[in-house]
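Data card: per-record layout.
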Amino acid sequence: MLSCDQQAELAAALCATAETLGHALSASAAELMAEDLAEYGMEQIATALRACRKELTGKLTLAAILQRVQAADGRPDPNEAWALALAASDEFDSVVLTDEIQLALGAARPILDAGDKVGARMSFLSAYQRQVDTARREGKPVNWALSPGFDQQRRVMAVEEAGRLGRLAAPVVEEYRARLTHEPITQDGAAIAGLITGKSAMPSPEVRERLQEIKQSVLATQAEREQRRSDGIAKRREAFEHNRKLQLEALEQLKERRA
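The structure for this 259-residue chain is written out next.
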């Protein structure tokens, strides 16, 4: 959240950017725009403003700034997200996914398991967009994590590929690699340990079914936790707006008494 001084600095930058695009932006409008952008970092906003100066041919708008701020957060577009989700639905494959992809896949999986790929895609895209919109509105940074499959070689490959794409930091890649190449303690535990090791054994159908249930339970728990977090943020935002309204009313009353 930007401080009051940073918001004032941002308002000045907005006015300057609007001027370079050939129009004037009032101080009050710039202040409102700065307030709406306050949940993002100054570096993100500065990058978006530079893009606006280079790309816009019309007036500077809040929507144009937000579009560029959000596009730079590292989240894949819906179609790419769906392709990653499909790969993750294969229990043998390992894929690095964002939190939003995992939550949306959890919502669409029952439809996908029923064989309705078209319906699953529609459900996924809708859920994914909602999750992304919520995360961006709350200023939540993108988070990539490994969804492991049974194919032992694909796990390390998926992590290394994510590192090359900049989705996982180098220390995280090294940590994953160390975990994924660790030998299981006993042969009996190899099938389950295979989810986090580099040399797994093929589990029996019963174990595979149980591991799938565990994976779905984790996704459901993540979705529930995310919903509770969103509800809490909404309540705090509502309380903040209520207090702000009371403060503005008190300020107006003070102005009237002084007049």
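Known properties of this structure: Residues 183-188, 196-200 have pLDDT under 50 and may be disordered. The two ends are 35 Å apart (CA to CA).

See the next section for split statistics.
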